[in-house]
Specification:
single chain; about 200 residues; 7 helices; alpha+beta; 3-stranded antiparallel sheet; about 15% strand
């Protein structure tokens, strides 16, 4: 009796070992989630680098209008300067409504390191910067700092929490540095205006 039961169980075990149906689904269940997350994190990182490069490049290009005196002599307003800057950024950035441009002068290059406080690190932008950014392009020979700020929403939700090893979010995070699912990207250009002739002279 026991021998018959043991033989039947051995037959079932042999059939179970030979049956490979569903192994692909089980393997995908183990590997699919981490692979998908890795793929999305790679996409997110690449998009961040593209956005940073685009904003910095646009800041540098548009700042030339101030450096050469074209903005001052042409009477460019803050909105018009921002429009010129937005011509050089990709369409996905929604430049007109999301980019903040702050232009100010400094006494010397040592003071140019005093950056504008953009946010509190918890996803809140500086109200003064958001509501009334400065636009002081300066005169000939003056030192000017052009800062541009863009708040990008992360496409992978809570990516900084998922990448945190100890379960706590450390600030600043290499991807989401402005709250749980946002990244504050900053472009900066520091230069001394050329000795252009002001309009009317």
């Amino acid at each position: 009796m026991l021998l018959n039961i043991n033989q039947k169980l051995a037959g079932i075990r042999r059939r179970f070992r030979k049956d490979e149906r569903g192994t692909s689904a089980i393997e995908f269940a183990f590997l699919g989630g981490p692979f998908l997350f890795l793929l999305l994190a790679t996409f997110e990182t690449g998009l961040n680098f593209l956005t940073e490069y685009s904003l910095q490049s646009a800041t540098t290009t548009a700042s030339r209008l101030i450096r050469t005196g074209q903005a001052q002599n042409g009477g460019l307003s803050a909105a018009e300067f921002k429009t010129e800057l937005c011509k050089h950024v990709p369409g996905f950035m929604n430049c007109n409504s999301k980019v903040i441009v702050n232009v100010d002068t400094r006494a010397d290059f040592g003071a140019a390191g005093n950056r504008t406080q953009a946010g509190d690190g918890n996803g809140n932008l500086n109200n003064n910067l958001q509501n009334s950014p400065a636009f002081v392009p300066g005169g000939p020979g003056q030192i000017v700092v052009v800062e541009t700020f863009y708040e990008q929403k992360m496409y992978v939700p809570f990516i900084n929490k998922l990448l945190s090893l100890n379960g706590e979010v450390s600030r600043p995070n290499f991807l989401a540095n402005h709250g749980d699912d946002k990244r504050l990207i900053v472009g900066v250009a520091v230069f001394q205006n050329e000795p252009f002739n002001p309009a009317g002279n």
